[in-house]
Specification:
It contains no helices and 13 strands. By secondary structure, the protein is mainly β. It has a single domain, classed as Jelly Rolls. β11 and β12 form a beta hairpin. The two termini are 20 Å apart.
Length: 155
């Protein structure tokens, strides 16, 4: 059994930055991402689910650019599933304006099992509400071959 914990906390750059990536042999269920703007001006943030060796681009955006008002916060409350083959990235529009804190649980992958990537389903904030875009899938179940978790898998 895994215990929930803080996985990462940082102030991302205006260039996309890796917030969190599981280590080899681990899968991760990200349960919450807190995004805070402690500055006096609005600032934007964007999240990506990026496969190893790839770059953050429009094709792997989880949450497209969102404006966060001065002194506001947002909380992504649905699950995101990562493996050591992909990572959670973020970029911001204003350097030093946004702090991101990631909470979740890490799991060991045993017997060659897999732990497939999931998508953000919804989030809440003190200034607006976000919801999943087209193609977001809430299905999380056993992964291919019966090991781990993943959408549309048998086992």
């Amino acid at each position: 059994m895994s215990t929930p914990k803080k996985l990462a906390q940082m102030t991302p750059s205006t260039d996309a930055t890796v917030l969190y990536q599981p280590t080899s042999g681990k899968g991760t269920l990200i349960t919450d991402i807190w995004v805070a703007n402690a500055t006096g001006s609005s600032a934007t943030y964007t999240f990506y689910d990026v496969d190893n060796g790839k770059s953050p681009v429009d094709g792997n955006v989880l949450i497209p650019a969102q404006a966060l008002a001065a002194g506001a916060y947002a909380v992504v409350t649905e699950s995101i599933v990562l493996t050591n083959a992909n990572g959670l990235w973020c970029k911001v529009g204003t350097a030093g304006a946004i702090t991101v804190t990631v909470y979740g649980m890490e799991y060991s992958l045993r017997g060659g099992g897999t732990f497939m990537s999931g998508r953000v389903l919804s989030s809440r904030s003190n200034s607006n509400t976000l919801s999943a875009g087209p193609g977001a899938s809430p299905e999380i179940g056993p992964g291919p071959g019966g090991g781990g978790f993943g959408p549309g898998s048998g086992g």
